[in-house]
Amino acid sequence: MLIAISRPGFSEGICIVSHEEDIDGIGSAAIAIRATKSRCVYLVGYFEDKWLSLGRRLRAMCGKRSSLSIVISDLNPSMKIVEILDKSLDGCDNKKITWIDHHVWREDVLSKIRNLGYIEIYIDRSRTASENTSSFFGLDGDPVVKPIKNLSRDTDYGFFKHPLSEPLTDVIRYTLYFENTSEYLLKLALMFSRGVVWDYDLEARWVKAREKKLEAIENARKNSVYTSLKGYRVFISIADPMLSSRIILRETGAEGYDIAFVAYTNGSITISRGRNDINCAEIASRLGGGGHPHIAGAQIDRSIIMGGLDKILEYLGKKL
Q: Among 144, 127, 195, 152, which Cα is nearest to 19's?
């Protein structure tokens, strides 16, 4: 479900679109909110139905405004997503998109966007999306933004050393994949933008999230296997999307692999590497996705994952 917040007294000239699934995406939205004062905020993932829904909302806004400015952050688009967005904005004469990211983008997507002419891209792969958003808006010295950037880097690079990194990640994924809503995550982005990264409500939600998380970990342990695939030692786990891939690898004790695939029951696959000479973004590209050299992801047919480990191995064997 896509939910927008629109309140009187704030800027109505800019819409913010960011990744719904992690601290970096929600943190990027929070920084953009703080910079622009906009309350037109959408959180999305990579499923096409969400982009179609977002496109309908943006098209409706286009008919009500003389111009439309959109800031998109922490989202690495497929060609299909770009096409959905462009078609949705067809007929919107005065439009501009600023796309702030840190992933490795496909060359065909970059070429398509350059040809469209109304999308400006700001990508620094050495930093998180939150860090890039902060720099873009000139907020690097803002004390409210600093903890957002620290948490984003700690989680996006898989360190999880900050005491709030895992609890916040648990709450975000519990909200998104167990409660199936983005509404609370929008509230979280607003909280972050005001300098609040933890409160009693978050504490209460974390208690519920941890209970479900422990159940999901046990199921992931039962549905994990090591195997050999195209000369690589591969670890594969089928898991509930409520768990982050880093937590799955830690809790299953995964080690000694060249490539680790976490296949989520909603059709997502996350790819991690155990060797520095492996480029996860290239592997994800073969599956129609993208990401970073050290970690990447893609959306595949959910029926493949629900078919079990043998079905997943057969699919990956054709793609690697």
A: 152
**Fold classification of 14-198 (topology level):** Rossmann fold (3.40.50)
Nearest Cα to Cα of residue 5 among 220, 144, 267, 182: 182
Q: Which of 150, 144, 159 is nearest to 130 (CA)?
A: 150
How many CA within 13 A on the CB side of residue 289? 26
Amino acid identity of residue 225, one-letter, is V
E-assigned strands of 182-312?
224-229, 232-239, 259-264, 268-273, 290-291, 295-299
Which of 85, 91, 32 is closest to 57 using CA atoms? 85
Report how far apart, in Å, the C-alpha atoms of 138 and of each of 39, 70, 76, 153 are.
19, 18, 23, 18
| Token pair of 312 as six digits | 């997943």
> Where in the chain do CATH 3.40.50 domains reside?
14-198
Give yes or no for a contact between 204 and 215, defined as CB atoms under 8 angstroms apart.
Answer: no
Q: Cα dihedral sign for 308, 309, 312, 318?
A: negative
Three-state SS across 229-244? ECCEEEEEEEECCCCC
The tens digit of pLDDT for each residue in 58-89 reads 999 887 877 899 999 999 999 999 999 999 99
* pTM of the shown model: 0.91
The pLDDT tens digits for 159-172 are: 999 999 999 999 99
Q: Kindly report, as residue ranges, where domains of CATH 3.10.310.30 are found in the chain.
A: 218-319
CATH of domain 218-319: 3.10.310.30
